[in-house]
Specification:
Layout: H1 2-13, H2 17-39, H3 42-59, H4 70-89, H5 97-101, H6 115-133, H7 137-147, H8 153-160, H9 164-185
Helix pairs in contact: 1-2, 2-3, 2-4, 3-4, 4-8, 6-9, 7-9, 8-9
Length: about 190
């Protein structure tokens, strides 16, 4: 995959519009969703998405396939821009708010038309998000990137700028903490 990513980056750097359109088409929804989770406003998320892609385009010569996937690099560029945005605008909200919320779609079964099941799954999602908000932010961020964004430990280490062992430790401690919180929150079912 890295070779394919490197090839598309080279094509973009050579000014091939179709290659850049492929990048935007492939990653546009992911970047918009990331921006929206940070802002909770459609217009602001759209502006930030454009700003992120502009930054990605300007930073494209800095991408090196040998250091990791293009997706990981692109998300790191986006995350850094979002952090800069909040520093610039002086918002008091923590930068990792979007990570606290996780990706709701992991808690929904969109194939199920059963309203009761949808309510139950929505409630489970709220319980998990609430519990996740009680996990220390560094562990929470690692868990969300791993479980909801599907990143492996090495990708998380590159995105967060920490050693691989630190990521593994954060995920492990975070999962243990989350399990303790959930076990004290969720009532146990009794078998009759």
């Amino acid at each position: 995959m890295h070779g394919l990513e490197q090839a598309i980056v080279i094509r973009c750097l050579q000014g091939e519009n179709a290659a850049w359109e492929d990048v935007v088409k492939h990653y546009g929804a992911r970047i918009y969703n990331l921006s929206y989770r940070y802002t909770r406003r459609r217009d602001e998320a759209e502006d930030l998405t454009q700003e992120i892609f502009l930054r990605v385009y300007q930073s494209l010569p800095g991408f090196r396939a040998e250091t990791g996937s293009f997706k990981c690099w692109l998300l790191k560029v986006g995350r850094n821009l979002l952090i800069d945005h909040y520093r610039r605008t002086g918002r008091a909200r923590a930068v990792n708010q979007a990570l606290e919320d996780g990706e709701d779609e992991r808690f929904r079964d969109q194939q199920s038309p059963d309203p009761l099941r949808n309510v139950e799954q929505g409630e489970r999602g709220r319980i998990v998000r609430r519990a996740l908000s009680k996990v220390p932010s560094e562990s929470r961020q690692a868990i969300v990137l791993h479980e909801f964004h599907g990143m492996d430990y090495a990708e998380i280490a590159r995105v967060c700028g920490v050693p691989l062992g630190t990521v593994k430790s954060r995920v492990s401690r975070g999962r243990a903490r989350l399990a303790r919180i959930l076990s004290s929150t969720v009532p146990r079912r009794t078998v009759h």
